[in-house]
Specification:
The complex is a heterodimer of chains A (368) and B (320). Chain A has a 9-stranded mixed beta sheet with strand order 10-9-8-11-13-15-16-14-12, with helices on both faces. A 5-stranded parallel beta sheet of chain A has the order 3-2-1-4-5, with helices on both faces. A two-stranded antiparallel ribbon of chain A has the order 6-7. Chain A is an alpha/beta fold. Helix content of chain A is 33%, strand content 24%. In chain A, helix 3 runs parallel beside helix 7, helix 9 packs across helix 10 and helix 11 packs parallel to helix 12. Chain A is globular and about 65 Å long. Chain B has 320 residues and is of the alpha/beta class. Chain B contains 12 helices and 11 strands. A 7-stranded mixed beta sheet of chain B has the order 1-7-6-5-4-2-3, with helices on both faces. Chain B has a 4-stranded antiparallel beta sheet with strand order 8-9-11-10, with helices on one face. The longest helix of chain B has 22 residues. Classes of the chains: A alpha/beta (368), B alpha/beta (320). At the A-B interface, strand 15 and strand 16 of A face strand 3 of B. Strand 16 of chain A pairs parallel with strand 3 of chain B, so a sheet runs across the interface.
Chain lengths: 368, 320
């Protein structure tokens, strides 16, 4: 008897990332398309399917077309397509098909998408069956997701081998506020996931606003600015630590976007992938400065997809600087990357120095 | 604070008391030399390599202050070093190598790669708070063969771990070991620390001279004359550590092997350190040093350990 597993792919998830739209909820994906965004989920889905070891033990119930069926065909997995969708897919399709799959008796639902997709799945199935979230969105702040598509496959295998399950948070991120440079999130609900801590992405933790943390950011900023070279382009990622660096330079930085600085002046504000690649054509010496996301340690692949694999390749590993307060870095297991490009992820792995204070660094392992 | 929970024998307390009879006098240099001889004998090194100080933390601070100038200082994180600020003040740069859970291994190859400029490497072995042995002989040899590198190993828990590199000091000018009689010898109140120093460190320390209080000096001498009590106490603490860990293992606590008188544990019960404190039990809360749920538990007397276990069980029952 094979295990019945559902698979739903949100084909527009993650498309807002590289074009700097910070999400594709609602109609925003159309704007992303106009800006030249390319689908993110096909590659993630293929990685997921290729990494599942127990293919012979499962029968998949998949959403039609680009919501799942299209990708499964290439693998030796028994499957049945469920439901119908139009040319343009919507959140309602995810909800409707998830419910139908539960009625068909699936034991586990795999969904490929972002925080919005997780909310749609929660609306439809609540805690009726466990889920595995394959990260493909722009932000991924909910803790129901695996750390990567290949880790999601390992979670599926663990579930098939009988691991227990645990509740994890689904967050509601206000994308309009996010685009206006403000992070507003609330707890939306809980989904049940296989309890494999090492593959499960911890949720984002809020930035500390304690006096010690603020002082620490100022100390880091002072040291980084002191080290900055006039003839180098600096691409500053999102986050309050990076904002502290811009503040130290007397510059107005977008909190959640990527800004570019050269010779003490802003030369790019809230820049998308295309904008960054254009800047890289102009400036020969360049560095990326990023801070890990509190709680889960991602430096690339979550919330800053404008730093695409191509951008990272062009800048080079040795020109990536990581900054973070000790209270943030100390509680991380490791730093993480999930750029969507296996080769880039691999070359980012290994130890990286995180500047945690004035003349003070911590060497932390990057994992993918 | 990881003290030994048992008092030293009466003759050591008496020796300390006798020291107080000369409270109006500075320490007799002959007594200092006698303690150095006994420590050299105990450590298996020549007396010339031994230097004394009132507590190994003061010696550590002195070593860092003296040897970090113009050097990069490399440490591990997490670690017990209240002297980080000293290193930050004098070092060219301070780098900590993160020991990642659950293994908490030190990546030797990575560390060696970092030794391309003058460095002071400081490693506590066993590590506090993980209780793990980070270095072996091969690792120490690989580090100290770089002549521009100074290696400081803190062996505060040597009596528990049995792991030492003291015998390497004679032929390794750039190696220094800090130790204390606070823990294994039940003399935390006496504050007797010492270094076993290689030539480079002996020269750097040449102007350092710390008097020990009369009572500490005499208690330490008496303790070293017959250290069997220390070995019995160590054995008892290790047996208690094993017993407590066996019980916690059945209570869904993730445990990490220890070579010290404490152990590292991870629990799913949120805010456990505060909950234990509320019922009068003190453990070390590591929530600002490691991912959530990590605590460090020091081994006390059997009665104290039972109070901890009962307290933990009650909190767990309320949580589950």
């Amino acid at each position: 008897m094979k295990n019945k597993i559902g698979l739903i792919v949100n084909p527009v998830a993650g498309m807002g990332g590289s074009v700097g739209l910070k999400g594709t909820d609602g109609e925003m994906y159309k704007k992303a398309l106009k800006l030249g965004a390319k689908p993110v989920t096909p590659k993630r889905t293929m990685i997921l399917l290729s990494h599942i070891n127990n293919k012979d033990k499962i029968t998949l119930f998949v959403a039609p077309g680009k919501m799942g069926e299209e990708y499964v065909k290439d693998f030796d997995i028994q499957f049945t397509a469920i439901g119908m969708v139009g040319k343009e897919v919507s959140a309602e399709d995810t909800k409707k098909i998830s419910s139908e799959m539960v009625k068909k008796g699936i034991e586990l639902l795999i969904f490929v998408g972002g925080d919005g997709t997780a909310r749609d799945v929660y609306d439809a199935i609540n805690s009726k069956v466990p889920v595995v979230g394959v990260p493909a969105g722009v932000k991924i702040f909910s803790s129901v997701f695996a750390v990567s598509a290949s880790a999601a496959a390992e979670m599926v295998d663990a579930f098939l081998e009988g691991t227990d399950v645990t509740e994890q948070e689904v967050l509601d991120i206000d994308e309009d506020a996010f685009r206006k440079d403000r992070l507003a999130s609330r707890l939306y609900g809980y989904l049940i996931v296989p309890n494999v801590e090492s593959f499960l992405q911890p949720g984002k933790e809020a930035s500390s606003t304690s006096r010690a943390s603020v002082d620490s950011k100022e100390e880091i900023a002072a040291y980084i600015v002191e080290q900055m070279a006039q003839e180098t382009l600096y691409l500053l990622g999102p986050g309050t630590t990076l904002k502290a660096i811009a503040d130290e330079m007397g510059l107005q930085k977008t909190l959640l976007g990527i800004d570019a600085v050269f010779a003490g002046k802003l030369v790019g504000k809230d820049t998308n992938e295309k904008g960054i690649l254009n800047l890289l054509k102009i400036y020969e010496k360049r560095k990326i400065i990023v801070t890990p996301i509190g709680g889960n340690g991602f430096i690339f692949g979550r919330g800053s997809k404008q730093f695409s694999p191509e951008v990272i390749k062009q800048v080079g590993r040795k020109n990536i600087m990581v900054v973070g307060t000790k209270d943030k870095v100390n509680i991380l297991d490791c730093l993480r990357v999930d750029t969507g490009d296996f080769e880039v992820d691999r070359f980012l792995c290994g130890y990286m120095e995180v500047t945690v204070g004035y003349k003070e660094g911590m060497m932390v392992k990057v994992k993918c | 604070m990881n003290e030994m929970p048992y008092l030293p024998p009466q003759e050591i307390i008496e020796a300390g008391r006798k020291g107080l009879l000369n409270l109006n006098r500075y320490t007799n240099p002959e007594d200092i030399e006698r303690l150095r001889e006994l420590l050299a004998d105990y450590s298996g090194v020549h007396k010339g390599h031994i230097m004394l100080g009132p507590g190994s933390d003061l010696l550590l601070r002195e070593a860092i202050q003296t040897c970090s100038k113009g050097r990069k200082v490399i440490m591990v994180s997490p670690s017990f070093f209240p002297t980080v600020q000293t290193a930050k003040q004098f070092a060219t740069k301070l780098i900590s190598i993160r020991l990642s859970p659950p293994e908490f291994d030190l990546d030797l190859n990575f560390l060696i790669d970092e030794l391309k400029e003058p460095c002071l490497v400081i490693i506590d072995n066993p590590n506090n708070p993980t209780g793990k042995i980070l270095l072996d002989r091969h690792a120490v040899e690989a580090i100290i063969k770089n002549k521009d590198v100074l290696l400081l190993i803190d062996e505060a828990y040597y009596e528990f771990s049995g792991a030492t590199f003291a015998d390497m000091v004679q032929n390794s000018p750039n190696l220094v070991i800090t130790r204390t009689m606070d823990k294994g010898f039940s003399l935390a109140g006496a504050r007797v620390g010492y270094v076993i120093a290689g030539k480079v460190f002996l020269e750097a320390f040449s102007s350092f001279y710390a008097f020990l209080p009369q009572s500490s000096l005499h208690a330490a001498i008496e303790a070293l004359k017959n250290p069997d009590y220390m070995r019995r106490n160590i054995h008892q603490v290790i047996e208690e550590r094993k017993r407590v860990m066996r019980i916690l293992d059945k209570l869904d606590v993730q445990l990490f092997p220890s070579r010290t008188n404490f152990f590292l544990a991870r629990t799913k019960i949120p805010d456990i350190a505060r909950k234990l404190r509320d019922i009068g039990i003190l453990i070390s809360d590591l929530s600002n040093q490691l991912p959530s749920g990590f605590i460090r538990v020091s081994i006390g007397t059997r009665e104290e350990n039972d109070i901890f276990i009962d307290g933990y069980k009650k909190i767990r029952e309320a949580y589950v």
